[in-house]
Amino acid sequence: MMDDRHGLIPRSALEPSALDKLDSSQSEDWAVACSGGADSVLLVLVLLDLFPEKLTSIKIFHYDHGTREDSGSDVLFVKELAQELALECIVGKASEVGKGSEAELRDARLRFLHAEMQARGIRILIQGHQLDDVAETLLMRLTRGSGSNGLAAPRPVQHFYDSSLIHVRPLLSLSRSEVRSTLTSSKISWREDISNESDDYFRNRIRRYVVPSLQNSAQQDVLLSMGRTRKLLEEDAEALDTWTAQYLAENQCESGLRFTGNLPSAVIRRSLYLWLRTSGSCGIINAEAMDGLVDAISRNRSASYSLGPNQRICFHSNSNLVCIKSHQILDYRWPSARLPVGATLFLPNGSSLTSTIVDVDAKLKDQIVNGEISPSCTIFLNTTPSTLLIRQRQQGDKYRPLGMSEDVRLQNLMVNRKIPLGFRDQLPVVVLPPDLVLWCPGCPGPELFKLSKPTENILRVDFNHSLPRLTKSCNEDSILQ
Q1: Strand 408-409 relative to strand 398-399: parallel, antiparallel, unpaired?
Q2: Element (H or E) spanning 390, and its range?
Q3: pLDDT tens track for 330-360
Q4: Summary mean pLDDT of the chain
Q5: Edge-to-edge strands of the sheet including 124-126?
């Protein structure tokens, strides 16, 4: 399949910042997303060419959505590719075969990738996005009214705000035609996804009709121009983010976020967005409300907007303070209690914890990896203690979350996971007696006793509740984009 794979792409033709990140992380294992398409096949070969010493620490990850009849052939192709290159291959498959939206398919794939990475202690995910992907994403997000953060995607190096995971994309400087001509000239095969020819997906319509029409109407290479636009927007976004982080550090307080002086609207908007992510709000502010709040702060006029059924975000012009007001504050206090294996413990706020011994077969493991069982409400521990201690959180509580190399304060995890402030003291902390903190609902499971393969006699702990959403996800479709 690949008699001569060396020197396919010179290092100078790849994204410098992505290569810098890979150079600095050579001591770590890398995960490489491989669909079997031209982009990901070239990516794997380029990585092995540039980093031959990584042969034993690169792992191929493939996710089968099951949306096409021939998707099994893609799986076989990727497995054979990995075998030929002497690389480990990890394959996941959707439990329910059906056609989903572009966002749903992407989210399912990322859940699989991130879960498998965290289970193996891998931080770096390398993806094969290229220059055409940049142009298509830019055009798609322009139709949604995105800001500079959204228009700067996909980035060569993407850090995730609430985790240690990093996405690296070294092929962003290459066009789709360059990728395919490189493979063709070297007689290297790849898999074609026939769904890319369908007009059912917005990205496909952009690719087939809009980009060619723009190129026919323009006097310059639109792909290179859009690649430059993406880079300039990333520079602007990073500068504003730096300014915003400094402003937040100086102006947020226990009661809210204070706005003083004549700030640019971009800094106000970013400050509000980042503050909401860390404030514990369980609601989501829509674009219209965000625009109104930014305008009110700019004009120093009091305003109030809904964050959902139980919260409002308010700006008080007399104090220049933005704060969140909750309509319902939970205030239950309860003593610590024992939870024997096979029993259910009911808490005063109406929630409960159940512990059971289960066998994790391949099917259940796939459900866990694919996120079908909420990691915020259920954990699996590769241990079988006779009893667990359940209590409310205490100052200084910390544990090592799944995929992390060191302990993290529970308070910081709750903030990063956007657990509403009013719920934090009402959530049970699961402790292995006498005082080893294992988990708190809404937070990741523990690295200690993690699952690595189908196993018998595993402790499962379920948190059952009727509380509003424990966490608020802030994905790529945020108001800033």
Answers
A1: antiparallel
A2: strand 387-391
A3: 556 788 999 999 999 998 877 899 999 998 8
A4: 88
A5: 88-93, 58-64, 30-33, 124-126, 166-168, 157-159
153 vs 235: CA distance, rounded Å: 12
Q: Return the structure tokens found at 210.
A: 């809009």
User: In the numeric block, which tokens belong to residue 194?
Assistant: 């026939």
pLDDT in tens, 357-373: 998 888 888 787 777 78
Q: Which residues, 6 or more positions from 225, have their beta carbon under 8 angstroms from its beta carbon?
A: 218
Taking only Cα atoms into account, the Rg of the chain, rounded to an integer number of angstroms, comes to: 24
d(CA 314, CA 278): 16
- Give the per-residue pLDDT at 473: 40
Residue 274, H or E segment:
helix 265-279
The pTM of the full predicted model, rounded to 2 decimals, is 0.69
For residue 153, give Cα distances in angstroms to 12, 27, 143, 165, 379.
22, 27, 14, 16, 33
Residues linked to residue 124 through DSSP beta bridges, in sequence order: 30, 166
Which residue, 87, 93, 169, is CA-closest to 126? 169
171-to-18, 175, 338 alpha-carbon distances in Å: 9, 8, 54
Q: Are 334 and 318 a contacting pair, CB within 8 Å? A: no
